[in-house]
Amino acid sequence: MKCPFCSNTDTQVIDSRVSEDGGTTRRRRRCTACERRFTTYERVELQMPAVVKRNGTRSEFDVVKLRDSMNLALRKRPVSTGDVDAAVAGIQEKLLLSGLREVDSRYIGELVMAELLRLDQVAYVRFSSVYKSFEDIGEFINAIDEMKSPEAP
Ligand SMILES: [Zn+2]
User: CA-CA distances (angstroms) from residue 118 to 2, 29, 83, 142?
Assistant: First the structure.
């Protein structure tokens, strides 16, 4: 950590304290060159990366859309809600742990396909055959919504 006063890069941590909620660590530091003291706060950054669409625009990662698209592909298939939850959580975790600030929408599509392939091959084929021709998961859902027959439950 660089000293904010003299820009020296060598500073000593003289005290570390975790906040009451456990989310922040407060560190008291001392510069070894100018001896001045300053405080830094450290927190875990858990932020989903933004999704970059094929046309270059960005949107927020939407877990509801992700789940909806998987549920549509899995409609009337023998896969439990718990398994779908675990697959969705697995995808979110991969994206979080990637540390990336942006991901390509196609990459998310591939993560979904990998999970569906594991869960149910019919759902995998449904998803991959339709998804590949769309801009993103939201567009995929819109298209499937339009295709839904009125008597469908
Ligand atoms: Zn200094």
Answer: 48, 49, 10, 25
| CA–centroid distance, residue 19 to ligand 1 (Å) | 26
Calculate how far, in angstroms, residue 22's C-alpha sits from the geometric centre of ligand 1.
29
The answer to whether 59 touches 101, Cβ cutoff 8 Å, is: no
Cβ neighbourhood burial of 137 (10 Å; 0-12, 13-18, 19+)? buried
**Ligand 1 mean position, distance from CA 33 (Å):** 5
What distance in angstroms lies between residue 35's CA and the mean position of ligand 1's atoms?
Answer: 6
The pLDDT tens digits for 125-135 are: 888 777 766 65
- Tell me the CA–centroid distance for residue 27 and ligand 1, in Å: 16
Residues 126 and 143: their CA atoms lie apart, in Å, by: 13
Give the CA dihedral 7, 12, 17, 23, nearest 10 degrees: 50
Question: What pLDDT digit, counting tens, does each position of 71-129 carry?
Answer: 989 999 999 999 999 999 899 888 888 888 899 888 888 899 899 999 998 898 888 77
